[in-house]
Amino acid sequence: MWLEGVYDLWPTLRPLQRGAADPTMVRDQTGIWRGLLTPEGAASMRIQPRVERSGVSIRVHTYGPGAAWAARTAPDLFGANDKPDTFRMKLVGLRQDKGWSAEQQLAIEFVAREYLRTSWRLPRSHGVWEALLAAVLEQKVTSKESIGAWRALTCDFGDLAPGPVPVGLRVPPTPRQVRRVPSWRWRRMAVDRPRSDTLMRLCRMESALARLSQLELSKARTVLTNVRGVGDWTYAELAQRALGDADAVSVGDYHLARMVTYSILGRNDGTDQQMLHLLQPFAGDRYRAVRMIELVGRMPPRRGPRMSIPSYRYG
Fold first, then answer.
1. CA within 20 to 30 Å of 167's CA: 107, 179, 263, 302, which one?
2. What is the H or E stretch that residue 33 is in?
């Protein structure tokens, strides 16, 4: 299939990749490759963007039992059904409104400037289980740990991606495959007991998770956050990638609040409360604003040791 429009493709897809060596997402000279799970089975997708005067043409090839599903949802994955012009009009109104605080005005100007420079769109992958699996692995650990756990889990328990694909491309493990992971393997992958227990609870919700992308966002949030071990941060990480939630902010993230406040205000002691204050003008589209800040923002200089990687013990 072909898709034409104005796209900034890699910044849109980048949050779906878990580290440069993610076995489910590979970039080579032929395009971007994804191995994914679908309700109809495993699938592979090759994405080939081509820059033209009017924008970007995207050619998509899909393979495997889930190829038809992957092709149907590809436009959502690239943000084809997103309405970036609506947010641009919102930014015009925000810049004209003088009722915001001085700090909020700085945030509005920063986001407006960056949003006008990009053709980023809000993705919606519909891959609820994949996004949840990755988000739970990322809970309260360093990115080095979570990336390593994702790679080990996918390589050891997921399947090879179907079709003529790059060597080593894989699909994430299904809930049934994750349920078969022995306790000692979780420990070897540096996944502690609370996270593995949360994944076991989610594995038992396979049918409910398959329907989640069809629910209203408020209902989807309620379903997930009622699961022990799934809080607002985990929901936000999922919703930004799989559900197309333009307002989902990852409150409680180890780095995000400091990055946002430092990028806007130059302060290196940012808190979640300060971040939410800065994002208040963008209500309904706070993740769009955060993503613009992430793409060009800066982390404050380090003034202490890096976060250590603990030894996990099951008790």
1. 179
2. strand 31-38
Question: Model confidence over 39-86: pLDDT tens digits?
Answer: 999 999 999 988 776 667 899 999 999 999 999 999 999 999 998 889
Domain assignment present for residue 9? The answer is: yes
Q: What is the three-class DSSP state of 104?
A: helix
Q: Which segments of the chain does DSSP mark as H helices, in order?
A: 9-13, 67-78, 84-96, 102-115, 128-137, 143-157, 175-179, 183-188, 193-203, 206-211, 217-225, 232-238, 256-265, 272-279, 286-296
Task: Report the domain count for the chain.
Answer: 1
Reference 198, options 138, 253, 158, 124; nearest CA is 138
Domain that holds residue 71: 2-78
Helix (H, G, I), strand (E, B) or coil at 81: coil
37 neighbors 16 (Cβ within 8 angstroms):
no
Evaluate whether residue 50 is within a structural domain. Answer: yes
Tokens standing for residue 124: 């919606």
**C-alpha–C-alpha distance, residues 166 and 146, integer Å:** 24
Has residue 69 been placed in a domain? yes
Strands 25-28 and 2-5: unpaired
Tokens for 60, please give them. Answer: 């998509």
Please give the model's pTM, rounded to 2 decimal places: 0.93
Structure tokens given for 184: 């000692």
In a domain, 71, yes or no: yes
Phi, psi dihedral angles at 255 (to 5 degrees) = -115, -25
